[in-house]
Amino acid sequence: AFLDLSGPSEIKAVWKGSTTLPCAYVPVEDLVQQTLTWSVVHDQSSGTIFRRDGSGDHVLLSEYRDRVSVPKDATGNVSLLILNLEVSDRGTYTCHVTWKASNNSLIAKEITTKVEVVKVAATKPIIRAGELGLTVPAGASTSLTCEASGSPPISYRWFRSTLEGKALFLSTGAKLAWDRLQPSDSGTYFCEAANR
Description:
Blueprint: E1 10-14, E2 19-21, E3 32-41, E4 46-53, E5 56-59, E6 68-69, E7 80-82, E8 91-100, E9 106-118, E10 126-129, E11 142-147, E12 155-161, E13 167-172, E14 175-178, E15 189-194
Parallel strand pairs: 1-9
Antiparallel strand pairs: 2-7, 3-4, 3-8, 4-5, 6-7, 8-9, 10-11, 11-14, 12-13, 12-15
């Protein structure tokens, strides 16, 4: 029986976002997973983050508590999900799995993934119109939604162009909504997306 772990050798993850470090194998009959450990080597320190064995799942490094998990239901998928990434999370992560064969011998495999944590500026936002589109009958309700990507949190601000070509500030938040549109609501609207 041939077992191998697969995953990428390098990942760029977004600061304050979440990332999955893929580690997977194709299950083989007569081979039962015994242990899974995820460990990390940082610039200054190293240690075991996560261990899964017969007694359950254990997060061993306090700075990862409540931030890491491994799927439970998918045999062969032992990827590590990390939430709310900090720059200090960068380092080399190792996925180490052992299996027991029917003759009680143990097989062990590991792969390593280098993780960089990058700060990403907010992209130029796009505006999505509500179901009725951008030409809407008076009296109807509608909304515009502003969307951008980048390191969270992203904040949004809505403006409307005035006749003098100035920007009139309307509100914050990703969504701009109207309950009952009036003809006077016609105009040019724009949104701004920003992060740290």
